[in-house]
Amino acid sequence: MSLMSHTLDQNSFRVNDAHRSDERREWLRIEDRLLFEYRLLDPPEVRPPHVCPPEMEQTIETFITKPTADLLCHAAPSTAESPLVPWLLKIDWLLNLILRTLATMHPEGIVLPEVASLNISGGGIGFETTRVIDVGNRLSLMLILPPFAAVRAEAIVVAVTPVKCDRPRWHVSTEFTAISADDRERLIRHILQTQAERLRERRTGAG
């Protein structure tokens, strides 16, 4: 075998190995609770006017306070004791007040992500809903990774499974059809970091 042929074979192996590694990273999965919102693209979703979503005040409270709580939870002790923390809490309070006022004035104009239990990977998201969604529907998705990094994507519904509970509810599985490389990387990085943190917690608890 010539030196050139041997070099080409080595390069081809490296490319294939890197491709397989990217695929493995893309399909790593975790269960997590994150701020999440979706809407139908096909068929287009029509929101009813002048209808205030249920438990709007609680939704606003969670949307504002969860990112700050996540930030402080993962911060070093010195950061948590920083004099900037009260100012963050004050900003949260003001944003909460503003959004509640807007929700009262224009309830149809306030649509916020809500905390949801998700199955997430670099290739798609699974979630539960009480709304009727069909296989093949296209969705616009947004989830917020802690402390506050919005990831947006479009996805297609690949499976809908009934959930056994007191009221009609379905588990919806999706695959991304459009997501930026940066957003996919943020998602995979969050998955890897969360897996590492949970593994450390298990080892600490076992010790």
Description of the molecule:
The chain is α+β, with helices and mostly antiparallel strands and 207 residues long. It contains 5 helices and 6 strands; from the N terminus they run H-E-H-H-H-E-E-E-E-E-H. The chain has helices at residues 3-26, 56-74, 77-80, 84-105, 181-206, and strands at 29-42, 114-121, 125-129, 138-145, 149-162, 170-179. The protein has a 6-stranded antiparallel barrel with strand order 1-2-3-6-5-4. Helix 2 (56-74) runs antiparallel to helix 4. The N and C termini lie far apart (54 Å).
Question: Which SSEs are present, and which pair or pack?
Answer:
Blueprint: H1 3-26, E1 29-42, H2 56-74, H3 77-80, H4 84-105, E2 114-121, E3 125-129, E4 138-145, E5 149-162, E6 170-179, H5 181-206
Antiparallel strand pairs: 1-2, 1-4, 2-3, 3-6, 4-5, 5-6
Helix pairs in contact: 2-4
Provide keyphrases for this structure.
alpha+beta, 207 residues, 29% strand
Q: C-alpha Rg, in Å? A: 21 Å
Judged by helices, strands and strand pairing, the structural class is alpha+beta
Which geometry do the CA atoms define? globular
Low-confidence sequence ranges? 48-52
Mean pLDDT across every amino acid position: 79
Question: How would you concisely characterize the structure shown here?
Answer:
By secondary structure, this protein is an alpha+beta fold. Helix content is 46%, strand content 29%. It has helices at 3-26, 56-74, 77-80, 84-105, 181-206; strands at residues 29-42, 114-121, 125-129, 138-145, 149-162, 170-179.
